[in-house]
Amino acid sequence: MARHRPSRPYHHGNLRRAVLDAALDVIADQGPGAVSLRDLARRAGVSHAAPAHHFGDRAGLLTAVAAEGNGLLAESLEAAADLADLGVRYVRFALAHPAYFQVMYQPHLLHADAPELAAARDRVDRTLRAAIAALPEAERGGPDPESARLAAWSAAHGFATLALSGSLDPALAGHDDPAEVFRALTPLMFNPVPR
Q1: Considering only CA atoms, which of 174, 162, 83, 193 is closest in space to residue 130?
Q2: Which pTM does this prediction carry?
């Protein structure tokens, strides 16, 4: 799923974008721990100080990746028809953008107080809260929308994480699209089996 681009020196244009793209390639191939500003500068063919000018430090770069990822996720989720579709879109995002997904939920790697990250995360959260609020109280499992929000996010995030790690492979046998398997499971989320 990694985007493989030939490594070529940066000549002109948007250095910030070039460094972000290179970082996403490194994350997809080796994980966020392998990201270094010096290596990204080498890949872009610029001085080692150039990426620091745009991002400050490694955490600043990863924060920019997380903010961009949350923005892309929010854009997808905002087009969801309902809570089930929102969950399916979350899983699809994770599967289509594993490098973003690896960074977005690792606060120890990020500048958590960065305004652009907070704004992007807020868009995602508002969309989820709106989908929960649209559910009848009986469907969301009671009067507590915060518990319902946490349950929905946990279910989609957990499923996406299991799918990305290959842990669901036996359960997905014969199914081409893990997101559609998640869609089939969504009625279990807020409609518990009667005791």
Answers
A1: 83
A2: 0.86
